Structure formats: structure tokens, C-alpha cells
């Protein structure tokens, strides 16, 4: 497929990198008007001695933006090559959540160095943000939100936002606070723009905004942002005091990363770094992410093997049964994977809650019986030339039961995992397939042993 | 699991619905300050005779917002119950993309009625938006964007945005247009707020903004919005003229819906309406979405069955081979599902491009050989008590090969589907498992027939 390399157009980042590598490169001209994300990707691909002068050609605000887009490895590499005061300026200008991400990715020595360049208030802020464990709202929120007092007039509020614009993540939604920093409401810049000159913030703010706690799951934050089309989701503590905001772009990252994570879990691949690119992930890490489940499932499959061995006499007496074995256990596994995936996604999007189990079960029985009967007819047609009527009867009955039980297993497993506090996504692939294999073998040869003459 | 129903807190929508059902309900007071999405969910759960007066208690802008959040079925039900002039006012106040969604969901008679209540310019706009097929950028973009001229000063631009605020999707990012409506750049309200009074829009606008074409894939739009942390992605035609915008909340919907779609495709479930809730989807639709692939895969599995039948003599001579069959074909399928899922997600997020196939292949061989050898050792241990040395040797060699070939199939299949213009996500589940089943049977019994005495 090497010819595809020629017809893939070069990306903006590749253009920037190529331009920066020319001996007479006019770095400010090359970087002017370029997107920060593209500059970051270009710098990642360049050797440090070419990347460093390019980074230095930007003003400190753009440096901080570009630095925030770098992957961790490149942050570490370029960060180490910068002078101490340059590093201090960049870290000082970074948004608070990206600074906390950087801090989390450093070793103890690097963390100490980073704290060393910050003022005391910023240090405390960083400690607070960095203390939240991965997966919580606290780990993705930022503390550089815009805020207003309720008695400001619309022009006063606009002026306040203008002054906060450089140092905050966004001024399009501002938190409105009481004197003790409890969240009173939320106001949008749009509504301020539309308000009369004498209108006060408290008159136009949303007094009952959607909020979340810092210890909540980050998926819940993404769900709320998606449901309510929010730009900003305020984060409050148990006393209702403001502690941060989660923004729309965080939600997009969460949804995309969780989709990847769920897909990998579903395929029984272990956790991979969400920041990592599968093209660069060390092979040993890929190996480790995959081998655990594979070996575990081997021992799981032993039950299927033992099941087969237990029915050795039945098989020896009716070798034509073997012909249908892959079809039957395959169909059970496929039906199970379908139900499990439908359930996992419905739980992930919030369409279905744990309390819906009973209702889902009743619906699944109806669909699965219809599917099983259809499959019994299909396999009956497929097997006409291969087997006699009694074997076909065994196969048709088994198919109906196997598809039914596989579907119910697929529906139930995600609920059980959710209940146990585990990720339901683990259920949707090889795990449910392996379970269906065992039950398929037992049902098929159990029915055959009962119904066929020995 | 019925006890979970008691400890599930009632949602805001359930609170609203319950309050509206009380005989003395003060509707304006109940709905004041409530989120539009929650009101919509509440109205969906109420009978039309209770929902209609509630909807009427809102002003037309809130009515339009709530209407936009309703699912299609509820839109149709409440829309039909409204008087003609009420319907006209709501449709007139809806955002252009949601109006186009509504139009697309109607039958010919409904579409005609909807067009009848609109002015000519709006009708043309609706026709243009509704003509884009599902899955394209055109189908999710909206034409009610804010726009400015390049020679406006910052205060003039702010005043223009204030005037546009009511009728546009967002004023936080405005398109800057030439006299012939070509896109010259993009300017943020933040930068206007920070600009001096005499600064002109052209001096602060981003002259090289990220844009997309209306016929591009909506996933590409979501990828760009995520990569560049955009609020607004401008859509232009082949001459560079503005045709619309895609906003951050559209991107979030696309990523979430595509994740569900990819997960279902991966599990060989056919297309379900992205708008649908799996709890309410008619059972016949669920049945149809699942039965096609299941039956197709049955006929696929016949090759595995035929493979088994072809080796009947080998099996009859060495029944202990059967014990290892589920383990071997299961492991091949699992390894294949792992690689396929890793590849599908990497292609979906854009981390891997079709041109990377060669490099990915080399990496996969290295990982898969290591996995295969590990699995050979695992199955060797698992089988010690079950079989003699010659069968174990066959099993170990087969395991290494089956895991290797399964992994390579899993890696290759998504690339092949992408090349053929199909969705690579189809590869990640039962399809790859079924392929691995067939190759597993052939490899295992092929090697057994070669190496074992008959």
C-alpha cells in the first residue's frame, strides 16, 4: 500500500516542520497565523535543536498554548532543554488544567522544579488540581474561570470580563459568586451583550445552572455538557462553593477517549495511555495490554474443552454433530456480543440506567426468541445436505436455546459489572463470547445426548 | 434489581413532569429557570393534553429551544396538536440546523406544511440544508452564523454581533466575509473585547482559519473541532464562500453517536437511529438490526464446519484434539478482535492513516509472535494432564500460528474495508472472529494431520 503515501496530502504540521528545517528559515513568518495544535505537532517531529529556536520565536502566550498541545514526551524533552526562566514564563502562562496535567506527568524531581518557578498561590492551586485522581471531574477541570458579582451592571460585567480575558480559559460563560464564593448562578456573555445598560447580572443570570462535584466521574461531566449543550460546566464543592469549570473541549476529549477505552476494554485489551498514539506505543506495552486477557481467556476456554471431552462418546457416535459446532457456538457468541454491546453503549450514553434491567430483560427475551427461531430455520436449511432429520432437530432446538441464552448473558453481564463497580465495557467482546462458548457446548451436546440414540 | 429503583434519585425532567401533572399546576412558575433539555424530556413523558399547555406557557424563543430538544416522535406528536400559527412561530424561531433536522424527519405532507409557514428566503435556506445526505458536514451544519465585515472597528463589530445575537447560533466566533461572501477570516468575541476602539476586524482576525467543505464526512468535522479546540468550524464551498458553521455541540454529538455506531457495527448490529433510545426502539427494528449479520455469519461458519468435517478421520483417530479446539479458535478470534479494535479506533481518531499500514504490520508481527509464544506456553501447561507430548506439540505450534494469523487478519481487515470505502468498524467483532474460526480450524487440523500418526 506504499502508493498511498504519495497521494496523502501533507498536513499543515508537516508543512510547518519542513519549512522550519530549511537553513534560512524565517521562523516568525513561518509560524505567524498557524494553529497552535499544528505548531505543536510540527515541533514534536523535529529534533530538539530545531524545535527550540522555533518555540523561542513565539511570544510567551503562544508558547504556553503550543506547549499545552504537546504530547507528554515532547513536553519533557523540550521543557528540559529550555532555560529555567523561559520554563517559568511558559508554565506561568499555561492554563491551569494543562499545567496540572504537565505536573502529573513529571517525576518527583520535575514536579519540584515546576513548583519552584511558581508563586505560592499558583502552587496551592496546582496542588489542589493535581490531587484529583484520573477519571474524576477534578482531574479535567480548570480553576481559571471568569467570575462576576451579582450586583454588577451589564457594562461593568463586560469590563470585568475584558480584564479577565487574558488569564481565563473562557469569558463566554462566567460564574456569579456570593461574597463567600458560593455559586449563585451563571451568566453568558451573549446575555450581557443583549442586556440594557442598567441591568444587573443577578437579573439575567441562570439561577439554577447545571453543576457537578469535583469527585464525580468525568463521563458524567461530559454527559451533562452534551445533554445541555454547555460551553462551561461549573464545578462546586459540598458547600456549593466554586472550585472550577469543565469546558466543552474537555467533554469532547472525554467522550472520544472513553469511546476508545470502551472499545479496547470490549476487545479485552488492557488500559493504554489515552495520550498515546498506537503507532508510537512501545511494543512491550502493547504486548502487556493484550496478553493478560488472552491467557485468562485460555483458561476460561478450558471449560469448553472439558465440556467437549465430557461428551466424547456422543460425538464419536454422531460425528456429523461436529459439523454444526462452530455455527452453534459462533452464533451464541455473536448474539451475546450484540446484546452486550447494545447494553454497554446504552449504559455509557445514559439512555439506560441500572434500574431498567427488568424492562430490558423482558424486551431481550422477545427479540432473542425471534432471533433464535430465525437462526434455527437458517441452520436447518444450511444443514439439509449434511445430516439426518434427528441431528437437524437437535441442531435447531440447540440453536434457539443458544441464541436466547447468549443474548441474555450479553444483556446481563454489563449490568452485573456496573453493579460490582467495574467497567461494563469489559463485557462486550471476548469475555461474553467465551462465556457463550461454554454454555453453547453444554447445551448442544447435552440436548444431543438426551435426544439421539447411542 | 427492583430495589435500585428506589435509590435512583428522580431526575430534573421527572420533577418537572410530576409538577405539571398536578391539577393546580402553575406552569410558568414550574418552568421558570428550568433547562430546555429537561423541559423537553418532561414533555416527552406527558400525554399531549398535559404537554401542550405547558409548551404554551413558554415564550416563543423558549418554545423553539424546547422543541429542538424533543425527540422526533414527540416533535411529530406535539407539532400536530399545535395550531397552524403556533407551529409557524415555533418553526420560525428554531435554529436553522434543527429546523432542517425536523424537515428531514417529516413525510412529504408534513414537509409541505412546514414549508408553507416559512418565508421564501427561509424556505430556500431549508431546502439547501435539508438536501445534504446524512453523515455529511452539510447535514449537521447551520446557516445562522454571525458575520462581520473586515473594515468594521471593534466597537462596530460588537454592536453588529449584539444585533445578530438573537438570531444566530453563536456570536462567540464570527465569520468575516468579503463583498462576495468569500470567507476572509474568523474573529472571536474575546479578541474583539480585548481590542482597542480603533482596531479593525481585519487586523485581529485569524486569516488562515481551519475550514471544511459541506460534502466532507461529519467525523472529519468533529476531528478538526477536537484537534483545534474550536467553538465554530466554518463550512465553505469550492469557491471559498461561506455556507455554514459546525459548532462544538455538534461535534460532541457526532463523536458520541459515531462511538455508538462503531461499537454496534463492531458487534455486527445493523444501523439503528442515532436519535433512538434503546429502551423505546420497537422490537421489530432491534430484530431486523441484528438478524441480518447473524444469519450471514451462520453461512460463514459453515466453512468452519466443513473444515471440521474434512478432518473427521484425524479427529476420530485423536479425540483428545477436540479438547483444545475451543481454546485454539477462541484465542485466534480474541487476538484478532484485539488487533481489529486497536486498528479501528486508531483509524477513527486519525492517529493512524491508511499509509501507515506497512509500519503497523511490522509492529503487529512482532507483538503477535510474542503473544503466540506466550499462549503456546499457557496452553501447554493447561494441557499437560490431558494429552500426550505429540498432541501438545501440535497444539503449541498451532496456537502460535493461529494467534499470529488472527492478529494479522484483525489488523488488515479494517484497512481493507477503509480502502473499499466501507466502515472499518465493521471489522472489529464477529466478522473477524468468524474469519479467525475458519483459519483456526484449518491450521489446527492441518498441522495435526501432517504431524500425528494416523
Explain how this protein is built.
Two copies of one chain form a homodimer. Chain A is elongated, with a radius of gyration of 29 Å. Chain A contains 22 helices and six strands. Chain A is mostly helical and 454 residues long. In chain A, the strands form two sheets. A three-stranded mixed sheet of chain A has the order 1-2-3. A three-stranded mixed sheet of chain A has the order 4-5-6. Residues 1-7 of chain A have low confidence and may be disordered. In chain A, helix 15 links the parallel strand 4 and strand 5. The first copy, chain A, has three domains: 12-131, MgtE N-terminal domain-like (MgtE N-terminal fold), CATH 1.25.60.10; 147-248, CBS-domain (Roll), CATH 3.10.580; 283-451, SLC41 divalent cation transporters, integral membrane domain (Tetracycline Repressor, domain 2).
Helices and strands, with pairings:
The structure is a homodimer of 454-residue chains.
Chain A: H1 3-7, H2 12-21, H3 27-31, H4 36-45, H5 48-56, H6 60-69, H7 72-81, H8 84-93, H9 96-105, H10 108-116, H11 120-130, E1 147-148, H12 154-164, E2 173-177, E3 183-188, H13 189-194, H14 201-204, E4 212-213, H15 218-227, E5 232-236, E6 242-247, H16 248-266, H17 283-310, H18 312-317, H19 320-349, H20 357-383, H21 389-419, H22 430-451
Parallel strand pairs in A: 1-2, 4-5
Antiparallel strand pairs in A: 2-3, 5-6
The CATH homologous superfamily of the largest domain in chain A: SLC41 divalent cation transporters, integral membrane domain
- Reported by name, the CATH topology of the largest domain in chain A is Tetracycline Repressor, domain 2
**Helix residue percentage of chain A:** 55-70%
Low-confidence stretches of chain A: 1-7
Q: How large a portion of the residues of chain A is in β-strands, by DSSP E?
A: 5-15%
Number of helices of chain A: 22
SS-derived structural category of chain A: mainly alpha
Name the pair of protein chains with the most residues at their interface, and give those residue counts: A-B, 128 and 129 residues
Tally of strands of chain A: 6
Rg value of chain A: 29 Å
Largest pleated sheet of chain A: 3 strands, mixed
- CATH level 1 class label of the largest domain in chain A: Mainly Alpha
Q: Architecture of the largest domain in chain A, CATH level 2?
A: Orthogonal Bundle
- Overall mean pLDDT of chain A stands at 88
Strand order of the largest sheet of chain A: 1-2-3
Shape of chain A: elongated
The quaternary structure here is: homodimer
Amino acid at each position: 500500500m506504499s502508493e498511498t503515501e504519495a497521494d496523502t496530502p501533507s498536513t499543515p504540521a508537516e508543512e510547518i516542520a519542513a519549512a522550519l528545517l530549511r537553513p534560512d528559515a524565517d521562523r516568525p513568518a513561518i509560524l505567524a497565523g498557524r494553529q497552535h495544535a499544528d505548531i505543536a505537532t510540527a515541533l514534536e517531529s523535529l529534533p530538539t535543536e530545531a524545535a527550540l529556536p522555533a518555540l523561542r520565536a513565539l511570544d510567551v502566550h503562544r508558547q504556553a498554548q503550543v506547549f499545552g498541545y504537546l504530547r507528554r514526551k515532547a513536553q519533557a524533552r523540550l521543557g528540559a532543554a529550555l532555560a529555567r526562566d523561559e520554563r517559568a514564563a511558559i508554565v506561568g502562562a499555561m492554563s491551569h488544567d494543562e499545567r496540572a496535567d504537565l505536573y502529573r506527568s513529571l517525576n518527583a524531581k520535575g514536579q519540584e522544579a515546576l513548583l519552584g518557578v511558581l508563586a505560592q498561590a499558583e502552587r496551592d492551586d496546582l496542588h489542589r488540581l493535581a490531587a484529583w485522581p484520573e477519571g474524576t471531574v477534578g482531574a479535567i477541570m480548570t480553576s481559571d474561570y471568569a467570575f462576576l458579582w451579582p450586583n454588577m451592571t451589564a457594562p461593568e460585567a463586560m469590563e470585568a470580563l475584558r480584564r479577565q480575558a487574558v488569564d481565563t480559559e473562557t469569558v463566554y460563560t462566567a460564574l456569579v459568586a456570593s461574597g463567600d464564593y458560593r455559586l449563585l448562578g451563571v451568566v453568558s456573555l451573549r446575555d450581557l451583550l443583549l442586556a440594557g445598560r442598567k441591568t444587573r447580572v443577578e437579573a439575567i443570570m441562570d439561577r439554577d445552572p447545571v453543576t457537578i462535584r469535583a469527585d464525580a466521574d468525568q463521563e458524567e461531566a461530559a454527559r451533562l455538557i452534551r445533554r445541555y449543550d454547555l460551553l462551561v460546566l461549573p464545578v462546586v464543592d459540598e458547600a456549593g462553593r466554586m472550585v472550577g469549570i469543565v469546558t466543552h473541549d474537555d467533554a469532547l476529549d472525554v467522550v472520544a477517549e472513553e469511546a476508545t477505552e470502551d472499545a479496547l476494554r470490549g476487545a479485552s485489551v488492557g488500559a493504554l495511555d489515552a495520550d498515546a498514539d498506537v503507532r508510537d506505543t512501545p511494543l512491550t506495552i502493547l504486548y502487556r495490554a493484550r496478553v493478560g486477557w488472552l491467557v485468562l481467556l485460555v483458561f476460561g476456554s478450558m471449560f469448553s474443552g472439558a465440556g467437549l471431552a465430557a461428551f466424547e462418546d456422543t460425538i464419536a457416535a454422531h460425528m456429523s454433530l461436529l459439523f454444526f459446532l462452530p455455527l452453534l457456538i459462533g452464533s451464541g457468541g455473536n448474539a451475546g456480543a450484540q446484546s452486550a454491546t447494545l447494553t454497554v453503549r446504552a449504559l455509557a450514553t445514559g439512555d439506560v440506567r441500572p434500574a431498567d434491567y427488568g424492562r430490558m430483560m423482558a424486551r431481550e427475551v422477545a427479540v432473542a426468541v425471534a432471533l433464535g427461531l430465525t437462526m434455527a430455520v437458517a441452520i436447518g436449511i444450511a444443514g439439509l445436505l449434511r445430516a439426518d432429520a434427528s441431528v437437524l432437530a437437535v441442531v435447531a432446538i440447540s440453536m434457539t436455546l443458544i441464541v436466547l441464552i447468549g443474548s441474555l448473558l450479553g444483556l446481563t453481564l454489563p449490568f452485573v459489572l456496573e453493579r460490582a463497580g467495574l467497567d461494563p465495557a469489559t463485557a462486550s467482546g471476548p469475555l461474553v463470547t467465551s462465556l457463550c462458548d461454554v454454555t453453547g457446548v453444554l447445551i448442544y451436546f447435552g440436548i444431543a445426548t438426551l435426544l439421539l440414540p447411542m
